[in-house]
Amino acid sequence: MILDGPNIKSQSVHARTRKRDLIEMLFDLGLSISYDRVMAISTSMGNRVCEQYHRDEVVCPPNLREGLFTTAAVHNIDHNPSSTTSTDSFHGTGISLFQHPSLQNNGRTAGNTASLNTIYYHYTVELPETCVRPLVLPRKDPPLPKADGPLKS
Q: Origin, by domain of life (predicted)?
């Protein structure tokens, strides 16, 4: 597996600092993998998520677990700067998903991610061109898990 030991630490340092020189210095000291390897792993992770999208035809975080009650929070993102030097505005939607594991049910790994041994040695993530269709529940009364304790308002 490629994400162990120094690989995870190198990815973490890169994610926090984005400093090539720091990764290369740690590599020279034997504490990290090379910057090129960090970039290859990062690119591979992005491309695996895109492959999963093409396979499942659903935009979904790759680490969601199956069989868990999941809730979502949706919020509009509006940026309409009023300063005289502004040239742009932005409108979007932020979606956060929350899963609720319990002692009895920790969920199951989806098992649909591509092999971690697939490494792309080019540094381009091939983003899909698509229109994301809304996802709705297939029926009016979805099955809900039993509550672990008394419900309070």
A: Eukaryota
Q: What is the pTM of this model?
A: 0.55
Q: Which residues of 38-76 are buried (b: 16+ CB within 10 A; e: fewer)?
A: bbbbbbbbbbbbebbbeeeeeeeeeeeeeebeeeeeeee
| Helix pair angle (35-56, 20-28), 10° resolution | 120
In this prediction, residues 38-60 reach a mean pLDDT of 83
Collect all residues with Cβ–Cβ distance below 8 Å to 45 and sequence separation of at least 6.
Answer: none
What are 108's two structure tokens?
């199951």
Q: Is the dihedral of CA 101, 106, 112, 117 positive or negative?
A: positive
Burial class of residue 24 in the structure, from the number of CB atoms within 10 Å of its CB (0-12 exposed, 13-18 middle, 19+ buried): middle
pLDDT at 35 exceeding the cut of 80: yes
Q: How many residues does the chain have?
A: 153
